[in-house]
Hints:
The chain is mainly beta. The protein is 4% helix and 44% strand. It contains one helix and eight strands. It has one helix at 31-36, and strands at 3-9, 13-15, 18-28, 40-48, 62-68, 75-77, 84-94, 111-119. Strand 2 (13-15) and strand 3 form a beta hairpin.
Amino acid sequence: MARITRLKLRPIAVDVANAAVAVVLDVTFSRSDKDANTPYTMVCRLRGDDRGGEFPETADDDVIPNGTLTPPGGQTIRADGLDMQTFHFDKTVALEDLNEDLIGTTNPDEIKAHVKLTPVFAHATEAESNIRRLTVT
Length: 137
């Protein structure tokens, strides 16, 4: 099974009303991934980290609006004979979209990248035979 072996959100550069976001990650492929050239759908999204909030045990990370860095539906990746591949995602996001805490500058926003790899399984094929009636002989 493929594994994410490095995931880094680079420093976010803020320019007036926009923020430049850059993510780099390595995906390491298993021998079976390489042999079968197993396809995976990779989705990279920005999230607001809410674990340090007032109630961290009930806090869910906020999804950042317009914070998906991969194409809609994700990006399909394969080993293509390699042990590891590096991926880079860059996007300019409206600064207001990163304001996930909605409290102001006294509570700065904490942003992280979240990547999900999902194996793409082959579609099942089905068929039915013709119908036979049972007859007693």
